[in-house]
Amino acid sequence: MSEKIINEEKTTYETFTQEEYMVMKGDLLRPVQHIGKWGKIWIGFLIAVCLAGVYAYYIQETKSKYVTVSLRDYTMWGVYISNFVFFVALSLIGVLMSAVLKLTHFEWYRPLSRIAEVIAVAAIMLAGVSIVAAMGRPDRLHYLLLHGRIQSPIVWDIIVILTYVTTSIILLFIPMIPSMSTCKNHLTGKPKWQMKMYDILSFGWEGTPAQWKSLKKSVKILTVLVIPLGVSIHTVTAWLFATTLRSEWDSTNFGAYFVSGAFLLGVAGMIVAISVIRKTYKLENYLTPMHFDKLGRALVMMSFIYIYFNINEYLVPAYKMSGLHANHLINLFVGEEALFYWSVVLFGMVIPATLPLIPAVRKPLPLTIIAFGVVIAAWFKRYLIVIPGLAHPYLPIQDVPASWKHYTPSLIEMTIVAATFAAMLLIVTIFSRFFPIISVWEVAEGKLEGKDEIINYK
Amino acid sequence: MKKYKFIIGLLLALSFGLKSNAQEKTANMRISFEKVDSANTLCKVLVTSEDKPLAEVAVKLYIERLFGLLPIKDEVTSDENGFASFEFPNNIPLNENGLLNVIAKVEDDDNYGSFEANAETTIGVKPDLSFLTKRERSISAGRDRAPIYFIIASIALISGIWGTLIYVVLRVFKLKKLKAN
Amino acid sequence: MKEEKEESNRRNFLKLGLLAGTATIAGFGLKNKIFAGDIEETGEKVKVLTTDGRVVEVDSSMVAHPSEAKLAQFNVREGIPGKKFIMVIDLARCANARKCVEGCQSMHGMLPPIEYIKVKKMQDSDLGAPYWFPQTCYQCDNPPCTKVCPVDATFKRSDGIVGIDSDRCIGCKFCMAACPYSARTFNFGRPEQKEFSEKHNADKDKCCATKSSTEGTVSKCDFCPESSAKGILPSCVSECPNGTIFFGDELEDAVTNGEETFRLSELLKKRAGYRQFEELGTKPRVYYLPPVERNFPFEEATEVHNQVE
């Protein structure tokens, strides 16, 4: 398959002239150069949602959590933790869409990589925010540094998350150095500080062959490094559950199951992201139906991998139906959560595994709809892993108030979750308004594939 | 009504008076240990009153523990020599001073009321307190007792990855030096 | 660490003795020998229950306990030296009187529905007979909760107790997820509880070195180590009208329910003592005696206790 794609690439792309390059640069810098009315409204809306979340958090922390949050002793991890798992999963998009494709020479990664990386950075930051929102004593956050125990999976998670976020930021910014130089030279009418920022971030970039060589080597090192990091961040997140003795989570399969789910979410998230970006920023020439076609195929493959792990995770215990699993599984399959569970299976696995097999479905619009369904289902999938998993402890829950038995997220919790989504979108939006969301030089270089030439993109 | 109460009170007072009268005689106990053979020990409680041995007195034997008295056996009645003999177990853990506090009790005896005696013995086993000094490194122990392999592995991983990151960042700062001039 | 020591210093034992009401002491004439040199008449009287059931008033210095000075010497995280607390619960005696629950709640200043000790109705199989199952924190010897704590806020002490440092806990609740027995509870700051804790500020935590009412932290049954060190039984033990719960020091090989004292090893042997979910490898320090030859017929609970949100 890869051979075919490379051949395709070589026949599809022609070399380009300096003139074409200037057009390309104009297209890709346009979102930075000009922010329209709707762009401002969108940013305003996201800021409003974020502020609502900040206010909700203020209420949560100043008033009694028994009132503001629906968490109780049995369901002590709620929607914040499932949201955290979702964001960690989403952050693997950077690994898959940038690093894996880059290293395996799938040339169509070029316009996608920066989008993927900025989503990864935003998602992992919001994963951190979600976990702080879940803490009982956020004022003691620094205790993790003062008293951290290396034996605790939470400490591992914090270490890998910090490492991953640093690596992702570096990996996002190093390929941007030539773009910074482009911004510096071609953007007009921008405030002084912004131009100063471009100047600093371009690190004296002149595009000499030595600089190119050094830059590409740095990128390569990071690209190799980020793959095991990405896999371990989500594996360690899975271990937060798998290192407990709860039968629903007590699975050797958990790390791989989480990582495969994250890859599926990554592909779906990418489809939604490029679909929105190409429409709003008019980048249809760069994010082409070809990308949707490729991503559609990737979606099918990732869905099947995820289905495979789900079978291992649910159907093998269900075959045995041991007393440890019975309550939980029956509850999911035919009980209270059945509708919820099977909807997630349908929209999150079955549909993306089958429908994109039809070429017509791999067109932008239908594929975006399917991918959007996958993203929503992926969020609920994490909810179904965390919350019903807590509702069936070994010893029965007896003689407790009704709210202790059934968890329904409170308004405060949902506002904060909504705010984390808004904040993630806000980070991506703001980023795309200050930096070209598609890497000018990487796309241009892709179009030169097959030539040994390095063009000095000024 | 008042009258009845008075009469009842009088009767009660009288009966208590009689009872205390009956208990005027005091008795004593002395606890001694007698080795039968290497494995068995007898604990003998000698019950006396005015230096005369008392027979037919029900004696109970206890060992003092943190939260209460551990009975050794059901009560034993003293013989004609005034001895109540108990087979004394040799596997009772000693207290922190390496002793056992043995308490003999007579409760509500018709003639002598309640009285008790105590003695200390070293018969017993020393509890194994090695766990106090030997605190192993483990996954469930505190941060200062993390397993060595855990510490080494994490330091190796963290320094390897962060070292690479720092190396890459330093390369970025060197880009300026690679200018054309 | 310094804070904690001060905390335990501040504990007023005398008040504790008075409020505990039914403390058990053992032949208090002998105390001079055990804690020689510590004894000073304090002038304060405490009510204590002797082994033969009399309540007497004695000087607080007479009671079987290490002195305040001696207690302050050990670290809250290290435990009471030379002790290994252990509990045995006789399922044949439990009639769901719930006095343990209430006693515990008043001892720790907790309002329902928060229970450090719970009584659950258990039925192991369809034809098996139902029984009442009192459940505390098992103070496991291989505790899954201390494994996962990121900040050393919960720890295994040498006296067998799994302690919580509520000044350290960051409220991540990972220990609660890790505990297969759901023994831990989180202080979400329930308004009624907060109000109650403020009102009864003076007499909360009558038995524990670590505070249990810090909002946003985890708490649980901790075998009341401060009073246990002084030879006072935890109130779940002393309050039970049926003598269901036995408590003691494993190193002394003795457990008592306040009235009867047994040799631990013999009791477990004779009554086939077992630990809940042995297969999980947590090594609980709470043993159960199977509900055979019961003292009471099983009666379904007719009252719902914790209905109020």
Can you summarize this structure?
The complex is a heterotrimer of chains A (458), B (181) and C (309). Chain A is mostly helical. Chain A is built from 20 helices and no strands.
Topology (elements, then pairings):
The complex is a heterotrimer of chains A (458), B (181) and C (309).
Chain A: H1 2-12, H2 18-33, H3 37-62, H4 65-68, H5 79-91, H6 93-103, H7 113-134, H8 143-146, H9 153-173, H10 177-186, H11 192-201, H12 209-242, H13 254-280, H14 289-320, H15 323-333, H16 338-354, H17 364-390, H18 402-405, H19 411-434, H20 440-447
Helix pairs in contact in A: 3-19, 5-7, 5-12, 5-13, 5-17, 6-7, 6-12, 6-13, 7-9, 7-19, 9-12, 10-11, 12-13, 13-14, 13-17, 14-16, 15-16, 16-17
Chain B: H1 2-22, E1 28-35, E2 41-49, E3 52-53, E4 58-64, E5 69-71, E6 76-77, E7 83-88, E8 100-109, E9 113-121, H2 130-133, H3 148-173
Antiparallel strand pairs in B: 1-2, 2-3, 2-7, 4-5, 4-6, 4-8, 8-9
Chain C: H1 2-10, H2 13-20, H3 31-34, E1 45-49, E2 55-59, H4 68-73, E3 85-90, H5 99-108, E4 118-122, E5 131-135, H6 144-148, E6 154-156, E7 162-164, H7 174-178, E8 185-186, H8 191-199, E9 218-219, H9 225-229, H10 235-239, E10 245-249, E11 254-256, E12 261-263, H11 264-270, E13 286-289
Helix-strand pattern of chain B: HEEEEEEEEEHH
What helical percentage do the residues of chain C reach? 10-25%
**Category by helix and strand content of chain B:** alpha+beta
- CA-based shape of chain B: elongated
- Low-pLDDT residue spans of chain B: none
Number of domains of chain B: 2
Going across the major beta sheet of chain C, what is the strand order?
12-11-10-3-13
Shape descriptor of chain C reads globular
Q: SSE string of chain C, helix = H, strand = E? A: HHHEEHEHEEHEEHEHEHHEEEHE
